[in-house]
């Protein structure tokens, strides 16, 4: 077990990208070839590339990039990840491939195109597949950014868990980037999260309500959540391969072996600058909540899982336009009559909390687009402009791949005006 770090003293960031054909943008399951080229070893499941480490995921067309060790600040990580993306692009070029951002591929048929990771830990992935059938959008076609935040001891765990629980429902208001699946608009701006919420329906305790239960001590978490979860999966997992923290699929999960809580509801954005701008706003808001800047710890703990899950379900569909109850907005120091759009809360949080962070100039442009205009999902819909022919979708996602390569935000300008706020 690693030595526990105090609240907000370190940050672990993981971002997943799709590997696609350089010309057609079809998913290309060559993560093993990429990792072998990077590590200089066949069958490698990771490659340390300076401050950023590359790893495999469940499926062979996804590459994960993560900080090689916990970072003391988010500042500067956008540039490090951008360099890592450029390195991956150079290694993928001979394979006829490139990286594609966003939280899901808009044209992938996961039932036909899924290739599970075949090398080390392959038995683990096969076990997941045998239980849940991983050939679907909720398993094989979803990419996200994970934020790992440390806690030291029971009190810090409780305060961090309480803050994350109440902020989770509106995270898709900023982070949604998946409005299109199977070549058509899904009706959900965060279709990735909608599918993710149902990927473990066979064993409901694996996912719960996505929003974690109101548990604020380490022992109680093991007793109320993990122990029943391990008990429920045991008949389907005779070798005990899944008896670990990672089986827990809630929107935020404690990783007790490293004393962190991992946030998992954020769709991958169009470029590292946008991902880290998003991470910075989320972290700043959580810090404000933990410090009881707008609401008390007791007020945060009082919110029930069902109440929070109902708000989450709405932001998964409507992102920043979601209207939340005024009592919920009060948690963040936002007071207005009746219902309040989630985007208003985020704008207030960005203005009041973000200045306390080590600000990275790389965040400025994507923050302006993200907070003042709209989620990436709405910008994608604006660019497609009602034309869901494959050629149009490929053109728009080709532009998104260019944004990733150039570390630039996706701004559709005047064309997207009707889709904005």
Can you walk through the features of this model?
It comes from Solidesulfovibrio aerotolerans. This is Glutamate--cysteine ligase. It holds the Pfam family GCS2. GO terms for molecular function: glutamate-cysteine ligase activity. It is a single chain. The protein has 421 residues and is of the alpha+beta class. It contains 17 helices and twelve strands. It has one domain: Creatine Kinase, Chain A, domain 2 (2-Layer Sandwich). Helices cover 42% and strands 13% of the residues. Strands 1, 2, 3, 4, 5, 6, 9 and 10 form an eight-stranded antiparallel sheet that branches. The protein has a two-stranded antiparallel ribbon with strand order 7-8. Helix 2 runs antiparallel to helix 10, helix 6 packs across helix 10 and helix 10 crosses helix 15. It is globular, with a radius of gyration of 20 Å. The chain starts with 11 loop residues before the first strand and ends in a 15-residue tail after the last helix. The relative contact order is 0.15.
Number of separate strands: 12
Give the termini separation: 45 Å
**What is the rounded Rg?**
20 Å
SSE succession: EHEEEHEHHHEHHEEHHEEHHHEHEHHHH
Question: How many strands, what sense, and barrel or not for the largest sheet?
Answer: 8 strands, antiparallel
Tell me the CATH architecture.
2-Layer Sandwich
Number of helices: 17
Give me the CATH fold name.
Answer: Creatine Kinase, Chain A, domain 2
Strand content: 5-15%
Q: How many domains is the backbone divided into?
A: 1
Helix-strand makeup class: alpha+beta
Outline the low-pLDDT stretches. 414-421
InterPro entries: GCL_type2/YbdK_subfam, GCS2, Gln_synth/guanido_kin_cat_dom
Protein name: Glutamate--cysteine ligase
Organism: Solidesulfovibrio aerotolerans
GO molecular function, one term: glutamate-cysteine ligase activity
């Amino acid at each position: 077990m690693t030595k526990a770090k105090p609240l907000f003293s370190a940050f672990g960031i993981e971002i997943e990208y799709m590997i696609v054909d350089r010309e057609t943008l079809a998913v290309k399951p060559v993560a093993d070839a990429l990792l072998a080229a990077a590590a200089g070893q066949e069958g490698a499941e990771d490659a340390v590339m300076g401050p950023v480490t590359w790893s495999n995921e469940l499926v062979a067309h996804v590459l994960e990039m993560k900080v090689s060790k916990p970072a003391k600040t988010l500042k500067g990580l956008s540039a490090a990840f951008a360099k890592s993306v450029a390195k991956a692009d150079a290694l993928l070029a001979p394979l006829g491939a490139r990286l594609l951002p966003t939280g899901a591929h808009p044209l992938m048929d996961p039932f036909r195109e899924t290739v599970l990771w075949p090398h080390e830990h392959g038995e683990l992935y096969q076990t997941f597949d045998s239980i849940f059938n991983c050939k679907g959008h909720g398993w094989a076609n979803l990419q996200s950014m994970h934020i790992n935040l440390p806690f030291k001891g029971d009190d810090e765990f409780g305060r961090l868990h309480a803050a994350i629980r109440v902020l989770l429902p509106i995270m898709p208001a900023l982070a949604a980037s998946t409005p299109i699946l199977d070549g058509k608009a899904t009706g959900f701006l965060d279709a990735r999260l909608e599918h993710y919420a149902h990927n473990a329906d066979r064993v409901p305790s694996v996912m719960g309500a996505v929003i974690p239960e109101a548990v604020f001590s380490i022992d109680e978490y093991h007793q109320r959540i993990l122990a029943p979860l391990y008990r429920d999966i045991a008949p389907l997992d005779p070798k005990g391969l899944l008896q670990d923290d990672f089986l827990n699929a809630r929107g935020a999960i404690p990783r007790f072996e490293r004393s962190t809580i991992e946030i998992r509801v954020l769709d991958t954005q169009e470029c590292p600058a946008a991902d880290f701008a998003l991470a910075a706003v989320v972290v700043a808001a959580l810090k404000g909540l933990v410090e009881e800047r707008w609401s008390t710890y007791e007020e945060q703990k009082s919110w029930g899982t069902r109440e929070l899950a109902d708000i989450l379900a709405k932001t998964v569909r409507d992102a920043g336009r979601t209207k939340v109850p005024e009592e919920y907005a009060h948690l963040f120091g936002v007071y207005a009559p009746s219902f309040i759009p989630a985007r208003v809360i985020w704008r207030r949080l960005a203005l009041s909390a973000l200045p306390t962070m080590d600000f990275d100039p790389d965040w400025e442009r994507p923050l302006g687009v993200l907070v003042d205009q709209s989620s990436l999902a709405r910008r994608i819909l604006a660019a497609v402009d009602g034309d869901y022919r494959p050629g149009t979708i490929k053109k728009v996602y080709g532009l998104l791949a260019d944004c990733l390569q150039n570390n630039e935000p996706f701004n559709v300008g005047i064309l997207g005006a009707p889709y904005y706020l």
